[in-house]
Amino acid sequence: MATTTLTAQNGKAATVRKTFSRQTSVSTEINADSSIIWALLTDAAGYPRWNNTVIAIDGNISAGENIKLKSTLDPKRTFKLRVKKFDPEHKLVWGDAMGNRVYTLMENGNGPVLFSMTEKIGGPLFPLFAKMIPSFDNSFEQFAAGLKKEAENIMNTK
Amino acid sequence: MTASQFTNEFQQVSGQLKSFLLRITASVADAEDILQDTYIKATEKLDTFKGLSSLKTWLFTIASNLAKDNLRAKKRWVENVTDIAKEAALSNPQFLQQSMHIRTTSPQGQFEIKEHIAFCFTCIAKSLPLEQQISILLKEVYEFKLSEISEILATTEAMVKYYLHTGRSKMIDIYEGRCALINKQGICHQCSEINGMFNPKQKFQEEAVKIDMAREAGNAGKERLFDLRLQIIKGIDPFKSNAAELQLHHLEHNRRVMEKYLEKVTV
C-alpha cells in the first residue's frame, strides 16, 4: 500500500503512507561530536533557540519523563509525550498512544555523525483523520537543518 | 614542588581564585571558605600534582569541585533576579541606608557604571546551568584554553564548546531583552537609576558613553556587545575595586533575596 519509497537522506524528508499509518523520516550528516548533538536534543528549554519548528518544550527530556511540546505544525495544540527510550548519544524516543518519534545518532569513526529522525503515526482509526494531519516533511527538514547548523556552529567554537 | 614554593604560587593565583569563587557563589563568606578549603586540599594532595597541567589549572579544578559541592543543593537563580532584588531593596529602608552609608564613608564605596555591569553579570549568570556559567567565566574572564576548561570540569572539549555556546546565547538573549544600555527597548535601567541615587550630580549619558559597550550599542552586533561586556568584567576585581564594598553589599542583598525567593517558589 506504500505510495512513496523511503529515501530520507541528506536532509530531505520522505514519507511512507499506508492505510493505517504514516511514517516520515529524515537523516543528515553532522560534523560535530555526538555529545553535542545529544546535548541539543535533550535540552528542552534550548529547542526554540535552534529549532524553528518548536515553539516550546516543557519538562525534562530524560528517561521516563513526561514532556509537553508545542510545535509550529499545530500551535494551538500541546502534545503530551513520554520519553520512552533514552540511550545517551545513540537513541531517543518520545511519543504518545498515536505514535513515536525516534532520533538516532550513528558515529562513523572520525567522520560525521549520521543523525536520523523518524515518526510513525497510526492505528485502527487512522484513516478517519489522516487527511487532517499536516505533512511533516517540511518540519522534519527544518528540524534536521537547524540541528546540523547549531551543532556544527558549536563544534567550530574556538 | 616544596611547600613554601607552593604557598608562594598559591598566593599569586589566590586573587583570581577568590573572584572566580565569588562570581560563582555570589557569597563573600562562601568564596573565602572555599578558597581556604582549596588551599588545604591542595596542600594535602601536593604530592599528586605531577605538573601535567599548570598549577593554576590544578587549583581551579580543586576550587571548582568544591564550589560545585557547595552549590549542588542550591537552586539556580532566575533571569529577572535584578527586578526581584530591586523590589526588595525599595521596600527595605535599612538596606538603602546602609548602602548610602557605605557610599559616603567607604574608600571602596564609589558607584561606577562599569562596576554595576560586572555586578549585574554575576547575578544574571547565576541563572545559567552551573557548567555553562563556569565555562564562560573560565574562558572569557580567566583566559583558560578549552583543553584546560575540559580538565577543570572533567569533561570533553566538545562539551565545553557546548556549554560556552549555549551559555553565551542565553546571556546574549537575556541582555538583549533587558539591558537598556545596549537596547533602547531594554526593560532594565537599574544602572542609570542607581547612578542617579549615588551620584546625583553626574549626568548618566555622559558617563555611559565612556563605556565602549554603551557607545557601540547602536552599531555593533549582539556578539560584539557581549564580548565588550566581558571585557569590562575581566577588568574588574570585585574585591579590590573602588566600588568593591558597595557592590559586595548589593550582592549580599541579592543573594539573600534570591534564597528567600527560591525557597518560596519551591514550596
How would you sum up this structure, described in words?
- Chain A is α+β, with helices and mostly antiparallel strands and 158 residues long.
- Chain A has a single domain, classed as Alpha-D-Glucose-1,6-Bisphosphate, Chain A, domain 4 (2-Layer Sandwich), CATH 3.30.530.
- Chain A contains 4 helices and 8 strands; from the N terminus they run ββααββββββαα.
- Chain A has helices spanning 34-41, 47-50, 126-129, 137-155, and strands at residues 14-18, 21-30, 54-58, 66-71, 78-87, 91-95, 99-106, 113-122.
- An 8-stranded antiparallel sheet of chain A has the order 1-2-8-7-6-5-4-3, with helices on one face.
- Chain A is globular.
- Chain B has 14 helices and no strands.
- In chain B, α5 (93-105) runs antiparallel to α14 (244-266) and α8 crosses α9 (157-178).
- The relative contact order of chain B is 0.14.
- Chain B has helices at 3-25, 28-44, 55-71, 81-90, 93-105, 113-125, 130-141, 146-152, 157-178, 190-198, 204-208, 212-215, 222-234, 244-266.
- Chain B folds into 2 domains: 1-74, RNA polymerase sigma factor, region 2, helix turn helix motif (Rna Polymerase Sigma Factor, Chain: A, Orthogonal Bundle), CATH 1.10.1740.10; 76-266, no CATH class.
- With 267 residues, chain B is mostly helical.
- At the A-B interface, α1 and α4 of A face α9 of B.
